[in-house]
Amino acid sequence: MKKLKINKNLKDNLITYGIIIIAYVIMQIMIKTGHVSSLMQGLLVPLCVYIILAVSLNLTVGILGELSLGHAGFMCVGAFTGAFFSKCMQDIITIDILRFVIAILIGAISAGIIGLLIGMPVLRLKGDYLAIVTLAFGEIIKNIINVLYIGKDSRGLHFSMKDSLSLGLDAEGTVIINGAQGITGTPKNSTFTIGVILIIITLFIVLNLIHSRDGRAIMSIRDNLIAAESIGINITKYKLMAFSISASLAGIAGVLYSHNLSSLMATPKNFGYNMSIMILVFVVLGGIGNIRGSIISAVILTLLPEVLRGLSNYRMLIYSIVLIVMMLFNWSPKLINLREKYSLKRLFKKPKEVQ
Amino acid sequence: MKKFQKIMSLMLASAMIMTMLAGCSNSNDASNADSAAAETTETAGEETAESTDTTAASSDGAAFKIGAIGPATGGAAVYGIAVQNGADLAIKEINAAGGINGYQIEYNFQDDECDNEKSVNAYNTLKDWGMQMLVGTTTSGCCIAVAAESANDNLFQITPSGSSVDCINGNDNVFQVCFTDPNQGVGAAQYIGTNGVAEKVAVIYDSSDVYSSGIYEKFAQEAANQPFEIVASEAFTADNKTDFSVQLQKAKDAGADLVFLPIYYTEASLILTQANAMGYTPKFFGCDGLDGILNVENFDTALAEGVMLLTPFAADAEDEATKAFVSAYVESYGDTPNQFAADAYDAVYILKAAIEQCGATPDDSVSDLCEKLKAVMPEITVDGLTGEAMSWDTDGAVNKSPKAMEIVNGNYSLIQ
Amino acid sequence: MSFISYLINGISLGSVYAIIALGYTMVYGIAKMLNFAHGDVIMVGGFAVFFAVSMQGLPTFAGMLLAVVLCTVLGIAIEYIAYRPLRQAASSLAVLITAIGVSYFLQNVALLIFGANTKAFTSVVTIPAVKLANEQIIISGETIVTIISCIIIMTALTLFINKTKAGQAMLAVSEDKGAAQLMGINVNRTISLTFAIGSALAAIAGMLLCSAYPSLTPYTGSMPGIKAFVAAVFGGIGSIPGALIGGIVLGVIEILSKAYISSQLSDAIVFLVLIVVLLVKPTGILGKKIQEKV
Prior knowledge:
The complex is a heterotrimer.
Chain A: H1 2-32, H2 38-64, H3 71-89, H4 96-122, H5 127-145, E1 149-153, E2 156-160, E3 174-178, E4 183-184, H6 192-210, H7 213-223, H8 225-230, H9 235-258, E5 263-264, H10 268-271, H11 273-286, H12 291-307, H13 315-331, H14 333-341, H15 344-354
Antiparallel strand pairs in A: 1-2, 1-3, 4-5
Helix pairs in contact in A: 1-6, 2-6, 2-9, 2-11, 2-12, 3-4, 3-5, 3-9, 4-9, 7-9, 11-12
Chain B: H1 2-25, H2 30-48, E1 63-70, H3 77-96, E2 104-111, H4 116-129, E3 133-135, H5 140-153, E4 156-159, H6 165-168, E5 174-176, H7 181-194, E6 200-206, H8 210-223, E7 229-236, H9 245-253, E8 258-261, H10 265-277, E9 283-286, E10 308-311, H11 320-333, H12 339-358, H13 366-376, E11 382-384, E12 387-392, E13 398-399, E14 403-408, E15 411-414
Parallel strand pairs in B: 1-2, 1-3, 3-4, 4-5, 6-7, 6-8, 8-9, 9-10
Antiparallel strand pairs in B: 10-14, 11-12, 12-13, 14-15
Helix pairs in contact in B: 1-2, 3-12, 4-5, 7-8, 12-13
Chain C: H1 2-31, H2 38-55, H3 60-83, H4 93-114, E1 119-120, E2 130-132, E3 137-139, H5 141-163, H6 165-175, H7 177-182, H8 187-212, E4 215-216, H9 222-235, H10 240-260, H11 266-280
Antiparallel strand pairs in C: 1-4, 2-3
Helix pairs in contact in C: 1-5, 1-8, 1-9, 1-10, 2-3, 2-4, 2-8, 2-9, 3-8, 5-6, 5-8, 6-8, 9-10, 10-11
């Protein structure tokens, strides 16, 4: 019985990897044969970023069972440390791929450390209170990065929290992080292939964790904290483990994000609570704890606003309506009953008729 | 699990149907709807390996394809919509008058929500549509991100309002209609210094905004060479822009007789109201972002009395061109245009002048067109709403002189 | 002297947060959901007054009445369409996400109707400012009205919940929906009533917010909404006096940290204080200690 279950898990995981790889191969063939629009090509890396973010947040929300509204903060840490490293080392390490891999590692480690530091005090809180505290931390990170000025000249690095003038740089010195103006001119190293490799690494980490001894401990905390504690599971350790792994994966996504655009700024739009909530939307819409669902909903919700561009001014309005309808459709107990009761098959055949 | 995927694909399919239906019934031109529909099949094709090539634009008859990008939703929507309408107005006028060298212009505006990543998406959408020249993007941060892409494609870009130097630095295909930020900061400091407007100056700026902090930095640098002193420099952030009582109180306590506001008029209108409520009446001095303050709907213009600003455009100016522009704009879009609309309007006419100068045709490839336009940009001079005899350096910065205005009796008036 | 004026500015900012937080805490206390669309209902209230008074020329009082009625209806409608179907959903997060959807929806509807241009809001308050100590200290009319409204609303809500049948029903629903239903309480109607009251409060908050900070855009409500949410958590979410205290404390901290530490880091400081408070007192200043059931 037990063996059967493990096999089922394995099969399930292989399907998830399979979807990613098949999608990747199909996209590559289509790009090679020139069948992909510029828009789609431009969206490939962001899609990878959002998939990684969704999967990593699912680790906190779905597996650990804690609501986090500060995920964008970890992404922000990863994005800035990674981009900072790449900017500094642009002339020293000239092999792009090597520099980028180191940048990814640095982003992941620093986001993980921040995750650990934040996790230690706050994971004692529960439910909505934990949510608000993580939201607060996300905003603090963004706020601090917005007043951070770092410059480089012949004498080394200079820091300031006031403005770029007070860095006191030499004439030939360059400002790397310029407060709210962020980092400009990050080398564009992110590619679809690297993105997909990172997705697979993320999936590997998360899926293996879920099906490991540690993962079962984490899920037991989610299902019943007191019971888990009473059988001797170290609550703090496992909570911190899940939280910091999730944070460092978000950091990887951040590095990927920052190396895809030539200007990186911490605005409320990309690293504020709006983004954290957006990632949460991916997770909840895809099914809490459902890794494959997160991937699919991240793809759909990232593509949707772009697909809706034909609607011009009504675009975001329709987007919000679609979001509400999708949520009701996926989560409303009444509709779920209705779906199961009536004409399941006919309902599902519909998209095929359309195509 | 499978059920979920099916549900999702059903949702996506229905979303796509909606797009197609709405896309067709929309007032946008047909090619826009076509491209939207094409993208839709594109997305569906991701799984089924079925797609159509959209990069080859449908060139039905020869027409220049001009794209524009700006935020049409989100907190910065006011600027993006102004650019959208300003460019639209200019293109309609040009088309009605017979086009450029006899060729009509097709126009497509895309929303970027003031987000760098979305801006690149918008740019790629326009590329799929077959854009040959870009009027955009509206905001500096997005402009830097998009300029990197357009430089890569060698696509000619003229930004109406992306004022950061990073927009044009290293990208020889990007030109600006507006002043660069340092230019404005230095200009404002010099104006205050040489005209002896004040001795003690306070600055209130938006540290989370590229435009505002860019001007502030250069202003502070230049102030060291000027006969006035910065007694307080107070910042606010995008998340914190309703209450300015502290910043004003500090300026007041420091005895500043002039408050420099390198910010947009939305926040400036609040600052003026709050300063008035606390009985603080220094001289206020702003840059081009302040233009539009008199047109804030329902705003008590008496509060803005005596405000000075360095701006290239004023909607109340008396010259014929501005008057005609303002009345046409109000008639078409129901709002008084701000400086962003005027910049975008000028941007289209600058494109027209450049195309006429080099004799380009819509049949030129994007890259050829860009090379031709790049070559003639330093040669042309354009009289526009936002400046007389505007000319350009090869690096893309504009040469024009700002006008110092003062608000008197609820109107802008030129200070001689 | 400037310290006192900072303090007063802090209280006036805090009173605006407090009045928004009252609506938040009310809905959270009864329906147990974070209504992220609350800030946008506030914006709708602001636009309703603006539309009636500044665009149609109706008297201020009529505009205020219109705003309250409109927001009440809107609140009931939102609850009925977007939240009720998900009340029995497997996860409470589902309704949080639809609330975000509703928030986007309201913002974009307002954007399409009124456009993105900033509107200057004409204050609904006509009381003159109080000037003390040789005009060194100025307390604006809006602040006075906001604080008084806060106290009136707080007292009225407390009385309503403790003294009326409907209020008791709300309390029962917030404790245990199932048991309340068994006792013959109509849970759906009670939650609708909660949203009606919460949204009416949002309309009032919208008017006072826009009177104090007279600029109105489709995004006016979102940032104060989040701040007020923080204030509500600060004071102990679900607690009505807590919302008032949380709002005022938050406003004062924000202004003082702007004045004495850094105007750019004030948000970070506010959030840091919040975190410290929650770590010491995990359910906020006046929050009830929740006993864990095994």
